[in-house]
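Handoff note, outgoing to incoming analyst
You'll be picking up this chain. Sequence as last confirmed:
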Amino acid sequence: MAEGLNLSSLLQKRKTSSDQAHELRQMVKEERREPFRTFAVVSGKGGVGKTNLAVNLGLAFCEGGRKVVLLDADLGLANVDILFGLLTPPVNLTQVIGGERRLEEILVQLHDSFWLIPGGAGVQELADLPSSHQERLIHELAGLDERADVLIVDTAAGIHSSVLSFALAADAVILVTTPEPTAIRDAYGVLKALAKRSKGRIDVRLVVNMARDEAEAQEVGRRFQMAAAQFLDLPVVFAGYVCRDDRVREAVSKQRPLLWVFPDSRAARNLRRLADMLLPPPNVDESAPPPARGIKGFLFRLSRRIGLGD
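Most recent structure output, in case you need it:
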């Protein structure tokens, strides 16, 4: 009997030791992993190439060895799938919110390390959802931490409340404009709303799309930064630009991402440079990446913005 007890005790000690070793290995693995970061891509008006930029930026992150999930959160006009030549997915975020599907069931794999969460045209306003549906959505999104390193949220244009909710929850906001005065004006309107809602505590990265050249983009960035500092007391980082390139239009007509069909085009090179500015490769100090607060931090802030939490 005593021998049996001793053997049982020994096995338990070995099991405990094995469990501890497994936990230690897991901790080391987690420490080595790059922090999970979230970006919300926003714009003041439509037609500035926001979705195209979000898609190709995600692919550029993948080329750098990261795993990316793109959430098509333009809930009124979801169209990321079109840029990949896909039929409209039969299921989308609407079914997840309604409890009909799990998030894993609606994910569309676009690349070895790139997944799409299709948006739902029937969901117009996050804040109008019942709290049980909001909670379900947040619970499902929490599982992304095990799948990816980066979450990109492609929002609707303008200052819709769902846009502000996602933008204020993300680690950084990628604000997209073109050199056109109306685009700059509307982008500033979004920035003003974000500055007010965040009380000036928000990380904004400005991207000038469809620029004639670097000089034009730099000038737009300089004027935008001056206005933000003077009237909003908000620092804005000029993250980079993407030049006007006919290859972009050709890629859209082919319903394929630019980085796939014209990987050596000027715009594609600009996008890779932009990706490196937003998330520099290891040991390369290009620009300080946004602080990483993880998927849990993102979801906590999102819940606060859409009326859950205290």
